[in-house]
Amino acid sequence: MRTFLPPSATRESILDAARTLLARQGFRKTSMEDVAREAGLSRRTLYLHFADKQDLFLATIGKLVEGLLARLEQEARAAGSPEERLLAMLELRVMHRFDGVADHYQSLDELMANLRPAYLERREQWFAAEAQLLARVIEEGMRAGHFTRANAGALAGTLVTATNSLLPYSLSPRELGSRKEVERSVAELARLLVRGIRATPFA
Length: 203
Description:
- It contains 9 helices and no strands.
- By secondary structure, the protein is an all-alpha fold.
- The protein has 2 domains: 1-50, Orthogonal Bundle (Arc Repressor Mutant, subunit A); 52-196, Tetracycline Repressor, domain 2 (Orthogonal Bundle), CATH 1.10.357.10.
- 26% of the residues are buried.
């Protein structure tokens, strides 16, 4: 039975269906017709929102990042010292993605192989947006004397690059199967990185 929803709700329904099918059968085996059926929509409605399968699955990744950016914004404005917030944000940018792919991590390699060129282009934009939020907290910490005076944007970019090594697309299947291990690793890395930009790093 086809469902009639407002455009925004329809888009969300499609993205949820795509994610469900990605977990169930992977990227290659999922067709646009499958997604339309799962969402209870016509193929015509599906194509009004997404040009093709690549566009659709890139949007599922984009939705995950949009949620992350909203949470990073909240963390940047939260109570606590700049150092505490920066640590929390670095851990969050890894673990939010980890949890976001937990139900389909087995198909990540397949997904990236098919989306790689377009994904890499969008990824740079996403990373830049995350770095801007980190830079705000770094600048606040510099003004308060917590962090060494430097180019906050450059430092934020370095923190993003360093923690990218623990993002799901960089991990092995074994590592992806252990949330506790990844959580411990990112906490240790975040502490090491933030310690390196303290005004008194060896205190």
